[in-house]
Predict the structure.
Amino acid sequence: MEENTILSNAEEQNTPQENETSKTEGKKELVTVSKTAIKVVKKTKVKSEETEHNKENDLSSPEVDLSSLTLEALIDKFELIVSGERWIKHHNDVQTINKLFEEKFQKDLETQKKSFTDGGGNEIDFFYKPEYKKRFDEIGYDYRKKRREHYKDQEVTQKVNLERKQALIEEIKSLINIDQNINTIYKTFRTLQENWYNIGMVPRTESQNLWETYKHHVEKFYDFLHLNRELRDLDYKHNYEEKLKIIEQAEILQEVGDVLRASRDLNILHQLWKNDLGPVAKEHRDVLWARFQEASKVIQVKRQAYQKDMVGAMKENLYSKETLLKEMKTLSEPAPKNHKEWQNAINRFNTLRDQFKGVGYVPAKESKTTWQKFREIGREFMQLKNVFYKDQKKEYNQNIDRKKNLIQTSKEILESETWDSKTQEMKDIQSQWRTIGFVPRKLDNKFWTEFSDIHKVYFDRLKSGYQKLSPEQETLHKEKLNHIEKLKAAKFSNNLDTLKKEYLDYWDSWQAFSRLDSSKDEKMNLSFSNTLLAVVKKVAIEKKAKKEVLNDLNLLILQSDPDRLQQELQEARTIVNSLKSELTQLENNLEFFSNSSSENPLFKNVEKQIKSCQNKISKAQEDYIRLKQVKNSQDKSARKTSSQELESSEEN
């Protein structure tokens, strides 16, 4: 219907007033606006495509279920809309958010009020305005302020546009009385006419009257032009050439695969035919109009076929959505029974949900119903999932407590005087451990390490015939503990030479102690070393000097502790490899930038990260080389000692 109306109006526009023209002498000058017309088509195309793109990225798409959001999520959504570039398009969403927020806040308010009165408070003294309510009110204030300013700016702009168009009409009126060459006047008129269409919207109350006034004076100007037959012929020629170009554009649109785009562009061409161009010579009028109509009918037929096919496609889409909804429903009927089944169900549900959203349009009368079913099924599925994991969390906590209790019991057995008589009890504890259900992996690994270490010590004792410390070893153990406690309370000098002497004295005193049995002695050495490093770190000296002191002390510790040295060496190697991988990734990222993008902030940022990473690698490699040198020295010393012992045994 819309296209037929455009066609009939365009045909009426071409009725010329040939009998009112007269021939005059003058210089001919062809004035064309073909480029302008084509630009209008292209601009309208781009604008249409941008509109489609914006619709696709619209925050208020039907997939967003506002009613399912929490209070905080509603506030976040509200803030996202208000801070977005297309905030003015989401007034309906804002009203919905306000309504939902008020409902949820009232429920929260009643709950808090009941808690207050149940606690003995007087209802008249109750006041409740949480931080999220303040935040919501602030966002609402910003939104209302933006709307007021927007419509105020829009009103000002429309008034300016009104004044510009009124001034332009006055200029068209004045053209009739100007004493100039008629061709110059005609050029001025075409410029004014183009300017009219480039001016934006005016206040709605003035729009119709303004348009009628404009048309009236344009018609008067054409009456004035038609007094000059030569200029009328020039106008006819111009209109003929422009209409030929419009027809050619319409014929090209027949080959466009996108029927909707072709229909939109055809409507634009009809508007150009109707509004921008005057009549042509009588002998060309019917031929041009018939050719234009023929090109238009081809696109109209395609549009009708497309709409017919679209009805069938929408029915297929409806069937696809209903099938997906049924499968989504079966995922919770019956509900999964364990974590693995739930994870599989969640992954499948997310896949089906994405497929549902990817299905195209359905008949309008079914759209709301399918979306309602989709939300209800999703809500029910999520509620069942939340209930399961809430119950499972309770079970996990019980399993955690059971494992903690078994670890504690194992410790008590290990430390008891009669530990060697508890073998069966320790085996029973191991059996109980295996029957305990799921515990989160990270926590379970920690528990297992602690549990297995205790049981390893216990059964190692059984194999080795372990005995508790002798009185002499017990005395030595206490002396070492006292030495560590004394070190913890020590305060070293901030004079560099004095500081080195103080920590070396403590080190020499420690080395003078006899050894305990291997396992206890290793723990005591580690405790002493860590304490000594911690006390030195507290000394208030210049940062660079402190770093040197700590490096020297750490080397001293590592030279006497091969296990610790090996651990730090491995950590240093890991850090170097990790940094090299990071550097490789950053260098690969540079390949995404062209040579001309060196001033790009992202390019500069990547270059900065590469330099930082290279510096880190240099430092990490220095640490690794330093540790490797200590290790080599340690190995060399061990080989020398072994060789001396071998020579001594051969001599004997």
About this structure: The mean pLDDT is 78. Residues 144 and 303 are 43 Å apart (CA to CA). The two ends are 119 Å apart (CA to CA). The chain has six domains: 1-57+229-309, 154-227, 311-392, 398-464, 469-560, 567-652.
